[in-house]
Give the backbone structure.
Amino acid sequence: MNPMAMLKLKPLIEKFRYNHPKFPQFLHTAATGIDEGGSIDIKVTNAAGQKIEASLKINADDKELFNALRELLSDAAGQQ
């Protein structure tokens, strides 16, 4: 991953956290409940009211990815 791209993301992430203060805690709590056989359901509604939905059934590979991402993000948070 390009380090300069990561540096550009930092202020955007901070602004997102400021605008949506409860969402990072939601993600943290939800991430602890991700397990094989579970599911992640996502729904996005645009300003016109159009909806798109997806449902992912979690398998062992997904669980491994989410664990790696969780470690990466917690390491990054510890460096702040």
